[in-house]
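Onboarding guide, step 5: your first structure request.
Type a short instruction followed by the sequence, for example:

Predict the 3D structure of this protein.
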Amino acid sequence: MSNAVTEKKYWNEEIETLDRKALEELQLERLQEMVKFAYENAPYYKRSFDEAGVKPEDIRELSDLAKFPFINKQTERDTQGVGSFLGELAAVPEEDVVFISTSTGSTGVPTMSPFTKADFDEFQDTESRWFWQIGMRPNDRYVHALNFSLYVGGPDVIGAQNLGALCIWGGTLPSERLLYILKTYQPTILWTSPSYAWQLGEKAKKSGIDPKTDLAIKKIIVAGELGGSIGATRKAIEDLWGAELYDFYGLSDIYGACAAMCEAKDGLHICEDQILVETVDLHTGEILPPGSVGELVFTTLRKKARPMIRFRTGDIGWIDNTPCSCGRTHGRIHINGRKDDMFIVSAVNVFPSDIEAVIRDLDGITGEYLIRIFEKDYTCKYAVEIEKNAGNSKTDEEIAAEVSTALKARIGVKPNQVVVHPDGGLNTRSEHKSRRIIDERKLNYSI
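The system replies with structure tokens like these:
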């Protein structure tokens, strides 16, 4: 690859810098085609649209999408395997499908995500866009330390190969083995989860490896958890590794990574040429203007194996369409948390990400935490468990008071209790995603 190519700023400059009007015209053209394709080829959409009294030709402008019904994770579960192996949401025969991934099933029955050859190729070209966006180039060595077992993030490594990087298909290796690879092969870029990036750096130091001087990692990509977009968490990992950290966002229902940070690190650019984004009120489904916090709703504009028309993601956040300093014109999403994880204490909406931001920013504690949500006197309460650094001379009571005060200042409501453990006393460290929320409530707190 020539120097002129490797020095270019954008993977696909024409698409990434398309002015807003032209981008929306492209979205409308693709939306009209996709809604028509879904109606004519997917049994569920034919039935659903007919029941709602809408037709593909009702889409004359982007705002007309609001006339069409939503789908969600339960829709996937209800239609999966109905009528055919791929189910009623699928719009192509099985012989046209070359790849399927599945969700983890952490919130219910695992659901499959099928891809045609064209779907898969465009998926990987999008991944190449994100890798290039964070500065990956053909002279980089890249370790893909994500689970390959059926999950949609596994194949993203092909996007790195497509741009010419030397790729090491690490997968879910034990930390000792991964550290051996990092030290022996000296890769420059790593992708894993935020919690594991932190834990791997800690384990490296405890084994006598300084991530800053003994390893060559210059950039870390994280996904699967919110930590990469939490300033305090991102800084802690960057300081530990001496590397730049970039957050990626993906959905098993659509792509491995649908959105990614650029050098500005002000939200995550979403591929608006591939996905149309709406933000809706959690309760009414009413469309909210850009900049308003609500549930993110995605409509795929190109993926034909299983079109997703107005898919309610369950993620709470907002989209920013204002110009970005990097020059890219596609909107940036900001994720506050999962609708399933949000809880309400004394009429205040509490997201685990807000609690994490406080814990990661305090001195004298390890940054590990566990949130317990429970009922007391028929109201919702929360407690936080943390770890005290081995060299911290303060008493547990003093540390608990500091944490409680900081949480009250940031969130607006104090925890019912702060439990202080010694370093390593919490069982939250994981090779991949960490479980940090225990919900002990028995009443229905649906929002």
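Each response can be followed by summary notes, for example: The chain has two domains: 1-338, 343-439.
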